[in-house]
Structures are given as structure tokens and as C-alpha cells.
Amino acid sequence: MPTVVRMVQFTTKTLTDAGRAVGRLIKSIEGQERLDAVAQPLSGLVQKLIPAGPVRDLLHGVPIGHPAHPFLVQFPLGAWMSANVLDLLPGGWVPATALIGAGTAAAAPAAAAGAVDFAAAHPEQQRVGVVHWASNTVAVALYGASFLARLGGKRTAGKRLALAGLVVASVGGYLGGHLAYRQAMGANHTESVPHLAPEGWHDLGLLSELPERQLRQRLVGNVPVLLYRDGERVLALADACSHLSGPLHEGELNDEPGLGPCVTCPWHGSTFALEDGAVVHGPATAPQPQFRARVSGGRVEVALA
Ligand code: FES
């Protein structure tokens, strides 16, 4: 067998074994209810410090339609890692010091964005989130200490602290990946709706059985659909919230100026315009999939928009 194939097999097996061991470790973190004693007060503190409103929406990433945290962490991580490389090169000391200072400053908005996302997460996500948060706080402290050591002319200490920061930030980054890709925190939980809902128009019953200005749930195939009736007009959205699949039909109706009737999710307060599914307030950043609705022969019919 060629050497390269053996090397690939060895690497794959080593990574698989390591991945399984790390996976078991993180799974045990998800189930550690003792972490709730830290996560819940932290979540309450974040909600108090950054109340619902435009600042929290901005930190969630509502205006850009994606969570802001993964975008913002590029700045500190990029600066820090570049500094770690520059530390190995002749003449890299000054730019490395500048990058570590800039990266440490850039960690503040990234942390604020992560904090508001954390405060609107499931308990299992928050338990991993606490460890992710702790790792990143230590990383910031290490890079911050490195910056101060560099300003004091302590080159060896500055480089060692930055290297330690890189190791700890990598652990935090791995946990961030687990939160995003395994626990689907920040993902759009309605992406599958257009693939699951059967095509064409679907009969959802008599209009007269749909109460006016109330929220009701019906099924299109296996896909729950949220219905809202105003006279002869019916509005329809996917019922599972794009944030973490909360049941919108159990939410609250409200009127937002200029947007008409809106629904607020009962789980974490995301608000969507019923007219088109647009996100009015986070933590959701992805709009609700919309269904076209019509009344034919006194019956309500919907189809994917
Ligand atoms: S599930 Fe979190 S806001 Fe709807």
C-alpha cells in the first residue's frame, strides 16, 4: 500500500478516535445541570444589561440577517493568530504587539454579541456556552497580559502568554463550532420548510372555522403552518420559529407601527411580521418562510410562496 494512503488512513483513524473522545466530553458538558447555577444568573445579567431593543437586535445580527457573533470573532482571532505567526519571524515584534492590542480591543463587541445569543439559548446550549465563554475570557486575559508584558519590554513573557492565549482560544473556538454546527445555535431552523412542504395548494378547512385576529396552527403535510385571519384575508407563515423552532401559534399578537400584525414567539421573544415573515426583533435573524393563502368556495387554501 502506498505510503501516502497509509498516512491518510492513520490520520483519519487518529482524528476519528480523538473526535469521539472530545464528542463524549462535550456531550457530558451538555448534560451537566450544575452548570445551570452559572448559566442562568449570567443569562439574567445579560438580559438586564442589554435589554430588548435596537442594541440587542444589532448584536444578534437582525439587520444583516445572520448572527453577528461569528462575523465579529474574526477580528480578534485573525489579529491574534497573525500576531502569533509574526512572533516567529524576525522583525515581527512591533506589528505583533499592535495586532495583539487591536485583537484584544476587538474582543469586546464579539463577546457582547455572543452574550446576547447565549441569553436566548436552550439550557444544553447554555451549558456548553458557559465553558465556551470561560475559555474565551481566559484567552482574552492571556492576550491582554501579553500586550501589557510587551509594553513593558518583556519579550519572552509576551510571546509565551500569546502562545498560551492561542491554545485556549482554540479550545473556545472548538466549542463555538460545536454550538453552531452540532447544537444548531444561530442556524436557521426553518431552512427545511420549502423542502418538506408538499407543492401545490392545500385545503386547510373552512374560513368560518378560523377565528378572526387569532393565531391558529394547521398542517401542510407534516409542516406546521401558522394562520391569521382578518376578514376575508388570511396570512400564513411556517409555525416553527426560525430561531429555535418555538411554536409561533402559542405566541402573542401585536401591532408594530408600519408593519401591521406581528407575532412574538413564546420562547425567546423573536417577533415576525405576519405579512411577509420579516424579522422585526431577534434573537431570530432568519425570516419565517411564507405561504400564499387564498379563500376558495369558503375554504382556506395555502401554497408555499
Ligand atoms: S424559538 Fe427562540 S425566539 Fe422563537
Automatic annotation (TrEMBL):
Residues spanning the membrane: 130-149, 161-181
Cofactor: [2Fe-2S] cluster
Pfam families: DUF2231, Rieske
Swiss-Prot/TrEMBL keywords: 2Fe-2S, Iron, Iron-sulfur, Membrane, Metal-binding, Transmembrane, Transmembrane helix
InterPro entries on file: DUF2231_TM, Rieske_2Fe-2S, Rieske_2Fe-2S_sf
Domain of life: Bacteria
Domain Rieske: 201-302
Family assignment from sequence similarity: Belongs to the bacterial ring-hydroxylating dioxygenase ferredoxin component family.
Record's protein name: Rieske domain-containing protein
Organism of provenance: Gryllotalpicola kribbensis
